[in-house]
Amino acid sequence: MMGKLMIALALALAAPAWAGHAPRKVAAKPAAPFAFRNVRVSLPQDFDVEYPAGAGVDAVNANCRACHSPSMVLTQPHLSAEEWHKEVRKMIDVYKAPIAEDQVEAITGYLKGLSAAK
Q1: What is the CATH classification number for the domain harbouring 63?
Q2: Is 106 exposed, middle or buried (0-12, 13-18, 19+ CB in 10 A)?
Q3: Looking at residue 26, what is its pLDDT?
Q4: Residue 73 neighbours by CB distance under 10 Å
Q5: Is residue 83 part of a domain?
Q6: pLDDT band at 19 (very low <50, low <70, confident <90, very high)
Q7: Distance between CA atoms of 63 and 104, rounded to whole angstroms?
Q8: Which residue has the higher pLDDT, 2 or 83?
């Protein structure tokens, strides 16, 4: 009995909130049915671009290349060793890059060398 009373009370209190609202109309059927189609998108390829040789290039290829193309890395602004170290730590700590601790200095050193060459 108490449950029915609570439902009736809830409906009575909610009725003023619904007053004046017309029922929503369902959207009309589209003139033509939706159909999937194949679309080809051509993106620029940079498979021929490689990281320049240098100490740490193997660590960069093994740890960074899955997400960062050489073209992207080679166009980064000049950063200090400390700034590159912070970037590598961010990849590990924030983005969960599976970089082993013993690879961090090799990667940082390589990236610093790229910056110094600019």
Answers
A1: 1.10.760.10
A2: buried
A3: 73
A4: 16
A5: yes
A6: low
A7: 10
A8: 83
Q: Please tell me the pTM assigned to this model.
A: 0.60
Residue 12: Cβ-neighbour burial (10 angstroms; 0-12, 13-18, 19+) = exposed
C-alpha separations of 20 from 17, 27, 105, 111 in Å: 8, 21, 68, 66
Q: In this predicted model, what pLDDT tens digit does every residue of 23-58 receive, in sequence order?
A: 677 777 777 777 888 888 877 776 678 899 999 999
The domain of 93 spans 57-116
Sign of the CA dihedral running 68, 73, 79, 85: positive
84 within domain boundaries: yes
CB-based contact 85:108 (threshold 8 Å):
yes
The residue written with tokens 């609202």 in the block is 21
What's the CA gap between 89 and 112, in Å, rounded?
A: 14
Angle between the N-to-C axes of helices 81-93 and 101-116, in degrees from 0 to 180, rounded to the nearest 10: 140
Tokens of 52: 């320049």
